[in-house]
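Subject: sequence -> structure tokens, single chain

Hey, anyone have a minute? Need the predicted structure for the following. Not urgent.
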Amino acid sequence: MEFTKKDLNKTLWVKPAEMDGQRVWWKVDATWKTLWRLATDIAKKLLGKHKPYYCDFWDCGDYVVVENIENVSVSGWKELKKMYYDYSGYKGNLKTTKYIDIMKKNPERILKEAVRWMLSKNKLRDKRMKRLKLVVGTTTQYDNFKPLNLYK
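Reply:
Had a minute. Here:
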């Protein structure tokens, strides 16, 4: 799509069917990236805020593949003090788990929850989360989509 000077004051409406064909794959290496900064950059790509035809009620975001999520870092004392909570809905059944324990057992959960909290709380959130691919270590599984590097 090309824009000219006369198009600057017009709102660009792209149909959702056209958006599906224009989804781009992004690849991120999470090694030594800060958790929340990484989560905000991923959320922007999943939402599609970097596109000129972004609209909050249409799902126009891209795919994001994140590798080496076991090497993501947090700042300050969060590594020792940060807690994650699971509540089943029953009285007295609130379970707390430390950040370090989750990183050892299931590092995907930490980044997945961080990105989920960054996305808007509506019915499109689950569709956007399905486009987030998390990988422990590196993989060549998504290389046939020719992903672009998010950080150059």
